[in-house]
Amino acid sequence: MGPARSAHGRVRGRLTIREATPWVFPCLYLGWAYLFWVPIVISGESVWSFPNVILLGIGGLSPLLAGLGLLWLTVGPPGFRDLRRRLTEPGRISPPWWVTIVLFYPVFTGAVAGVAIATGAVTSPLEPITTGRLFDPGAVVLLVVLALLAPAIEEIGLRGYWFDRLQARWSALVSSLILGVVWAAWHVPLVYMVGYFERTTFDPELWWWLPSIVLTAIVGTWVYNNTHRSVLAVIALHFVGNLTGEMMGFVPELYPYVHLGTVLVVIVLVVGWGPTSLRGRGRSRPVAPMDGSSP
């Protein structure tokens, strides 16, 4: 009876977590990050000093740890096999979508800069990366982390685990808004960390940055739902977006234009794109079954 009861307890615990989905993930995701990041903010010391930089790294693993941990508890090995396929199969992404992923942010950046120049808002709308920064080891390491490592860590948890659970209950648009709000909340402590953005071209303020993160989540859903749930696709989009921001950074005066441009892009996607992208119900399109098998 002992082993049987133990097995029954594990199954019951797994079902309890599934029933609580999708709210367990954001609790772990935000709770783990804030546990390590709030002390950095309170310290008032540079985020790059010891031990703050260690706390930054540990807290930054929260989406990966929460996503993989819950995937193991709720689905197990089949879920990991499904996630591996979505991370390593470039064939899920058609050539037109690869072009979209690679060009979306550079074209968007160029278009916003062009409008700003044409309207006389600014004469030099961009702050391209300088040679000095390219030869600054600290700046280069940060560029690699922000452009490549951070997107992979974030998207494996957000899209690799959580988003399918949201879409199983709500429409793609509503799911994107929920994900975007939680994702934005995760970024809040970074703004208050001394020195976090000092080696970048980015100088965010919460009033425009948090809404832009929510809108960016909608763009990510547009790509995700049109590439057969490819986590690789959203990592690539995130990577190109971060890299474009560092290589072709906007001057601060242009941020209102950037925000307005993002709003217009999202309106076009929501109004003009097909129901499988943003306007349909989550249950109307294939999503990952809770056992991890292919839909």
* Low-confidence segments: 280-291
Outline the biggest β-sheet.
2 strands, antiparallel
> Into which percentage range does the β-strand content fall?
under 5%
Our Rg estimate from Cα atoms comes to 20 Å
- How far is the N terminus from the C terminus? 36 Å
Give the helix/strand class: mainly alpha
The beta-strand count equals 2
Order of helices and strands: HHHHHHEHHHHHEHH
Which strand order does the major sheet show? 1-2
Number of helices: 13
On the 0-100 scale, what is the average pLDDT?
Answer: 85
Dominant shape: globular
State the helical fraction.
over 70%
How many separate structural domains? 1
Describe it.
It is a single chain. The chain is mainly α. It has one domain. It is built from 13 helices and two strands, in the order H-H-H-H-H-H-E-H-H-H-H-H-E-H-H. The chain has helices at residues 2-20, 24-43, 52-60, 62-74, 77-88, 95-118, 131-134, 137-167, 172-192, 206-224, 231-247, 255-272, 275-279, and strands spanning 126-128, 248-250. Strands 1-2 form a two-stranded antiparallel ribbon. Helix 8 (137-167) packs antiparallel against helix 9 and helix 10 (206-224) runs antiparallel to helix 11. It is globular, with a radius of gyration of 20 Å. It starts with a helix and ends in a 16-residue tail after the last helix. The model is unreliable at 280-291 (pLDDT under 50).
